[in-house]
Predict the 3D structure of the following.
Amino acid sequence: MATKYCDFRSEPAVGLPYFVPKPRVAAGTAILPPGHEVTAESVHPAFRPISLRNVTVQNRVWVAPMCMYSSKDGFFSDFHVVHYGQWAMRGAGMITVEQTAVTETGRNTPQDAGLWSDEHIAPLKRIVDIVHSQCQKVAIQLQHAGRKAGVSAPWLGLKLVPEEHGGWPDQVYGPTPGGGAWNDNYASPVTLTEKNIFDIIQAFGDAARRAVVAGVDAIAVHGAHGYLLHSFASAASNERTGDQWGGSFENRTRLGLEVVRAIRRNIPDGMPIFYKISAVDWLPESLHGWTLEDTLKFVPLLVDAGVDLVDISSGGVDRRQKVALGPQYQVPFAAAVKRLDILGLTVATVGWVRDAATVSDILTSGNADVVHVAREFLRNPNFVQTVALATATETAWVDQYHRAPTSPYTPATSLVVFQPLSHNAQRGPNNVHNLKHLQAPDSTWIGSRMA
Ligand SMILES: Cc1cc2nc3c(=O)[nH]c(=O)nc-3n(C[C@H](O)[C@H](O)[C@H](O)COP(=O)(O)O)c2cc1C
């Protein structure tokens, strides 16, 4: 039999200016033993591939966006390549890059990342390329921090940064005249004019266009935690009157929807949009906070505007909030959105997910389609493997690390893959009906991992 080039040399990963082997199979992909039928029962929900528009992800344990406060003038650096690369290598199917400001004054801290100029594209592309070299997917979260802008990093106390230290205390913007600061450490926001609002919508669209040039697979929007879009949506922080951006529910939610539309106009049709929402403000009725009913009214509008995934978080708009923190504390909100049963919508939950049992519980119960994990991925970059071990799922591992397998050896010849569906096609529960076997690349590769 003729020998093949790839019998002797690894294929190079694409898009990198140096040689590194392209993974034969993306880490974190489920592998079934020979003879196993691919059914809903035979593949744990955490390892059932999922498709959003043209993007297919091999598992459902995803890295949530986490600001690193590590940029100068908004630029990503080698730090970010290493930071995001660690999860790509170790099997996180989708990594959302941290909140990235669409304007300079939209940064939460002066050290936040940004995408307000074309010069920011190349450093972002380096993150995208390292993630893609590992055959994983990457999104970027676009952000305007609104009245929470211009403070120091959390470990320095989230204090308003004076101009001489790179802050912009006079250009911190919010929906409402005068008051409405998050707390006394923060700026008293200046009210956005209509022109400012249109400029910000445009800035989201422009940043999305730049992210597409950098090669991302999806665009995420930060619509939660009291930042600009949330602060407009919630009546607790938006007391604006006399124009189309304050007052009624329709007016308050207009900004978020226009931002989504601007992004949708600037990205390919096959690219998904994620929207992170605070499902509730955790405020007493007297403070007119955003409620679950508002969320259930807003999500279908987001989907009509072009959103494919809602990421269900909560809180952050008013410091008088009383958050009932605890395991799965935001899952009931995700479950309520799931019950809307919106065609083509993926529902993600986030918050206080620290172990495999919780991931398993959320996905097995169908309360969410995807679990976003933040802090546990910081503690344990191998969290996908932790879930795989706990759910007895054999998954593909890093070829270069084959001497250190993370799960017991199972002779396997089949990978679990997913046949992408067109965006509007009817999907079965958890998309499982489209799973099928794919022959492993060759019969020796699993064995060679055990050498
Ligand atoms: C260091 C750190 C930075 C964060 N930065 C962001 C961010 O940029 N965008 C965002 O939407 N949420 C951010 N979050 C919130 C997380 O995405 C997540 O919603 C929250 O931490 C709850 O999930 P966890 O319990 O898994 O950490 C951050 C959280 C942490 C710990």
